[in-house]
Fold these 2 entries.
Entry 1:
Amino acid sequence: MYNVRKVTEDITWVGASDRRLALFENIFPIHRGVSYNAYVLLDEKTVLLDTVDAGVAGQFFENLDYVLAERPLDYLVVNHMEPDHCAMIGDIVRRYPEVKIVGNVKTFGMLSQFFGTDYAERAVTVKEGDTLSCGTHTLHFVMAPMVHWPEAMVTYDDADKILFSADGFGSFGALNGNIFADEVDFDRDWLDDARRYYTNIVGKFGASVQGLLKKASGLEIAMICPLHGPIWRENLAYILDKYQKWSTYEPEDKAVVILYASMYGNTASAADALAGMLAAKGAGEIAVYDVSNTHVSELISEIFRVSHLVFAAPTYNSGIYPMMDNLLHDMKALSVQKKTAAIIENGTWASTAAKQMRAALAELKDVTVLDTQISIKSAMKREQAKELEALADEIVKSLNA
Ligand code: FEO
């Protein structure tokens, strides 16, 4: 059965959701599924904006066939060549032999890499500022390199004032009939997944996102149609503000997240004790995570969200406990910046975790590590309560600064 929704009079959503896939990119758990959005413009010309992941091909083609209603497909615009969007290009060409493929020079290079052909006979190569007249709608092409791959571009429809934003403004989460952000409680039900999607997929490329936001600010945009998650047609300022913060690495909340690694519970106990002391001193909305039991993508999302971080971990094989080491590595890979951090280490002998965590954090831009740090020998003793209180005082002072 087809499942489509009109976005405007001439544009229809023909995407599909996958609630069976366990790991997006074979990395990220997606407990709420994921949608792959694609859009059809019916004008004097017919245009498909992007395809979908192979996992939802059947639903997508049923949708596309229904919306085209026997009309030929004139153009396929390829905004992004990652296979979660480009997987169906070969099938589109086989089903719609007249179709022309619209992309930039890099798009066709990647087409060749993925499909063994650059479809030169049907290629329409566009560059920044080029347009495609489709009748009453004219599509404008805006290059968006590294949001999220080098070939990425976005497409602006000047008739309906829609920005087809590729991965930009996307989110994990299946669409459940309500394809518009104003039809759901986005702040309650979607924001965490939108942040987790952004920070883990595009987080490294803040400068590139800033470049796209600057270009977008010159357009009159009534609607943002991303390739994942809900469409924005109201309160665009809300999501633009989030993107402004995320892409400049500014925290959303002045709050503390405590991230601990603990083999037998002793480091966890210290982390919880610190949380209690912070709360008693007035810190609110504290979050505590066991890095061994929380997927690193959720930790990264929370790290982007807040201003203050505490890292607590034992020494392991003369290094940092592996799960914490992996988190610190991921933080660097994703360009985490602008944080205040504190360190707690544990070790039964030859502790080196604090020194190594401090060195890892020193590699991040604009991350201040507090001088006060706690060293636990196997288990924290009552006599160390004063040290923990001092650390809590310093964190709260910094929070209130
Ligand atoms: Fe949703 Fe970069 O692909």
Entry 2:
Amino acid sequence: MIITLKRKTPDIEKEKLIHSLEQQGLRLTVSEGINFTVLGLMGDTSKIDDKRIQANQWVESVKRIDVPYKLASRSFHPEDSVIQVGNVTVGQSEPIVIIGGPCSVEGQQMMVHIAKEVKDAGGVMLRGGAYKPRTSPYSFQGMKTEGIKCMVNAREETGLPIVSEIMSADKIDEFVENVDLIQVGARNMQNFELLKELGKINKPILLKRGLANTIEEWIMSAEYIMANGNPNVILCERGIRTFETYTRNTLDVSVIPIIKEKTHLPIIIDPSHATGDYKLVEAVSLAAIAAGADGLIIEVHDNPECAWSDGAQSLKPEKFKALVAKARKVAEVVGRTL
Ligand code: PEP
Ligand code: MN
């Protein structure tokens, strides 16, 4: 971190600032120029609040050359993390994971049926929302506890670990007891109280990127979970808001190598919410694997026209199966298995 002090900063003010930074365990180099004094800070600056330093009237600018996160950072933890989800391992050194299932759980039989099809196609985990974050309060809000029970039953029938979205901290016990991978949806990526509580458990968390969040904000949300004690975080890019209206969101493919460079956490891609259109899901999935994603989470439904949510972006099982077969070939090209 580099702090530039204004010309004519009184020595006493310089000394006060230097002393307070040293008190926080940082080492400093001081370069006196004609117009400015430049302080170079070394050590762990992750706890330093840039805004507070900027508030000092003698500070001209504050520039970070490091990052504000630590536990999620590649420099803090050079090896790739491998996250265990039931009997499935997720990470750079592991086979690519394919997760499939409906947007919303719609019933017991439906879940078992789709779970079998997902497994038959090569899927290794089952997704299904029981608590749904819907834009309209009049839309279907999810089967809630009944839905979680349907997911548990589908796991018993197929052996597939289950992924479901949590929306509030008061459901943590229910999720810890029943769900293998707890999803934090895009809308809750910055629900810091929820993130802190999820940090106190050790179940793996699938942290989706917010609708309009920067990569750094997203990693900081992972840091919230990790700083509270839970290192088991998998990131999920699901498209961000842009000016484009042809697709529901815009998939940020470049985020994959960026996340790999900046962090040691696995990253998976959700091509369904990224595009909002079943016709685009396969192309985007293959691109994600080519770019180095550790997995895909895809909405699958037997009868998309009648789905209770997100039918337009859901794949029929046969299309999902064909996608997995192609994805396997792309994985091979980039030196991965699936
Ligand atoms: C979902 O996975 O069904 C979902 C609501 O996703 P997102 O939070 O990415 O919109
Ligand atoms: Mn959905």
